[in-house]
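Researcher: First entry.
Model:
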Amino acid sequence: MIFHNDLSLQNVPVSEDGALTAVVDWECVSAMPLWFSCQFPPLLEGKPSYEEPLKGMYEVGDDGEVVEMYWEHLDNSQRTHLRQLYT
């Protein structure tokens, strides 16, 4: 299999509607055995969270925006969902 050594959120741009637009930064690509593909790519690693957080349950900062913890929990939830799709 072809292995992208730096497959991260920065290297997988998506459009406003969530469609994959490209995979960039292929300078360290490698040919790996097929069993290697059984691992999650780094962009899917993270703490499991099976429920999407409710934005209204989080504090709002002085700037009127929801606190950073909400975004971290949302990220964990989305990565968990993507891991399930990947599997």
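Researcher: Second entry.
Model:
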Amino acid sequence: MVSAGCFGLVAACILVPAPGRMARHWSSATIYPWWSLVLAVVGMVVALAAPVLRRRGALVAVTAATTGVFAAELAGIGLVARKHWHPAFGYGGGYSGGLGRLQWLALLIFAAGAVAAVASLVRLWVAGDLPRPAARPTRRTAVAVGAALLVLLPPAIGMGDSDGLDLTSLAAFALIYSLPWGLSIALTGWLGPVAARAVLTACTVCALIALVGPQMDALVSQPYPAFALASLAVLVTLLHRMRSTSDDRALTR
């Protein structure tokens, strides 16, 4: 229920400045992309279903893994929005709500997402899915893909914009995209097979949504190549894990 409450708080913080205006014309009312609300609502529904499924171990792992990825990305969005609201107003955006209030709401989004992400890790640990190391080749693949996204995705996104390679922009891209995806993928090397596949599926969904866009308003132009490659990398990792025959006998030495 902690995670469900956190996701509900995220959704409320996104909508509370002007729900009616957002329903009519989303992009003129807020800097948050529409899919941030979708992640919050889906995360809340999945988290609410978790207690009902607690006696079914595999589904518990799926719900915990999925909400963990969504929560991590929402935490990054909130932290970036806390700083980004100010320049967004300066760019001429007629957003709903006062600047100070919107910045505090962004901090609440960050805090709620962070708490939900930690709660997901705790649930995986209690369920015995973390740590549960996979075989060495599977771990190496997970770490390699995760590290590659962590390091290469921010500059790849920034290359689509003449002002996208400064340190502030790269940090923003890392917080929203590469940190949640890269760390989640790397973590799958120490997750049970069901939880690992759920994490990779959630990362694939997030990457594909980012590919569809849009991104946070006035943050970056649509970097289709970067998100296309990220989606492909995560999908290939998911297929590799699904075809792995070593998950059930995973050992570390």
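Model: Note on the second entry: The chain has a mean pLDDT of 84.
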